[in-house]
Amino acid sequence: MEFPYDENSRISDILNAYPWLVQVLPDYDPRLKSLSNPAVRALTRKYTVADVSKFTGYPAEKLLDKLRRLIAEHE
């Protein structure tokens, strides 16, 4: 499976493609629990993987690797 996302990808695009990530990402970082809030989800259109990386303190490449692995494991 090709993973077409990079640090400039919008979080909303990833969550729209893989909506179940909203449930598993808080296990990766509890600060991501807010993604299940509809108001916060609406704001994700503005934020990229790089933005979330800054918020969580994880390097963007590490976050992308985690997303790749979660998606691969789920499929």
Number of helices: 5
Content of β-strand: under 5%
Mean pLDDT: 88
Chain oligomer state: single chain
Radius of gyration in whole Å, from Cα? 11 Å
Order of helices and strands: HHHHH
Helix content bin: 55-70%
Separation, N- and C-terminal Cα atoms: 9 Å
| Coarse structural class | mainly alpha
Q: Describe the biggest sheet?
A: none
Which word captures the global form?
Answer: globular
Q: Number of domains in the coordinates?
A: 1
Unreliable spans: none
Strand segment count: 0
Question: Please, could you describe this protein's structure?
Answer:
The radius of gyration is 11 Å and the shape is globular. The protein is mainly α. Helix content is 59%, strand content 0%. The protein contains five helices and no strands.
SSE arrangement:
Elements (H helix, E strand, L loop, with lengths): L10 H7 L3 H8 L9 H6 L5 H8 L3 H15 L1
Provide key terms for this protein.
single chain, about 80 residues, mainly alpha, about 60% helix, globular
Summarize the model shown.
With 75 residues, this protein is mainly α. The chain has helices at residues 11-17, 21-28, 38-43, 49-56, 60-74.
